[in-house]
Amino acid sequence: MLPFVWSDDCLRHEPEAEVWVGTRTPATEVPARLVAIRGELLSSGAREVAAQAHDDSALLAVHDPALVEFLRTTWDEWESARLPSDRVVPYVFARKELTSGREPATPAAVWARPGLFAYDTMTLIGPGTWEAARAAVDVALTTVDLVAGGERLAYACCRPPGHHVTRSLYGGSCYLNNTAIAATALLAQVGGPVAVVDIDAHHGNGTQELFLGNAAVRTASVHVDPGAGWFPHFLGFAEESDDTNLNLPLAPGTSDLGWLAAVTRAAEFAAGARALVIALGLDAATGDPESPLEVTAAGYRQAGRILAELDLPIVVVQEGGYDLETIGPLAVETLRGLATV
What we know:
The chain is built from nine helices and ten strands. It has 341 residues and is an alpha/beta fold. It has an eight-stranded parallel β-sheet, sandwiched between helices. Strands 2-3 form a two-stranded antiparallel sheet. The protein starts with a strand and ends with a helix.
């Protein structure tokens, strides 16, 4: 039976809203996403494994300690300040251009401090956000332990997602980069190189920047073209590719044929690695409210088969996917494809 790792604490983050182009809109990265996936996994006969606590060493190997400490403490400070917003929302952003390239000072004001670490206004922090993000790391690391211990394939059923987080900045509904933390831990346990293949509909910008130029961790991302107006907007273009990173941007409306061709290229780029981490975004699917791609459930299963043919130990880390009716079946279809070898 396929093992998947679970922690109830991943449900503690409830953003309730996003602030997008100045407007407070309902959140899409909600606990119900994970509940739906877990239900389908259990119905399919997958084996649930409880996440085990890990110390911060793997986390701090990826992220700046200042970011980690900010995420750990900011909600309590925000709440104590009795601010009018019920969530931590940045209102002013630190840019090195403000200080001629010098590091900006840490603001005295609690309400200004988020601008040191956030790069958008849609990634809100509230009660339980830190606990959920930290639990997601434990889920990812427990999944790595399973694979390093002999499982060919294991799935980290976690949220909030993480692939948009850089070493020192959070955003894109992500707080800690679960995929990058898993890849770093897997590298330490099984040796390198390790490959990361990100099939989320949006570019894995944080993972790219964390490993860019690092031959020990190759990264490939299949995503909607940011040049067509899609997040993360500023990067994710094909010309950023090199020997350690491959970007495969796709036009809006791309369906199975074009998407699977890109997944095949990503798999070819990953060939020769000793282990594989898959950043599993399910938002490339037809009907997902957060993406213009048109991938079917059959396409997701075939993507699993393509990546399984690499014949590598595989850690799957859950990223995006926002259609609550289809997210669970899509996860199961992908995992069935991955389990074919």
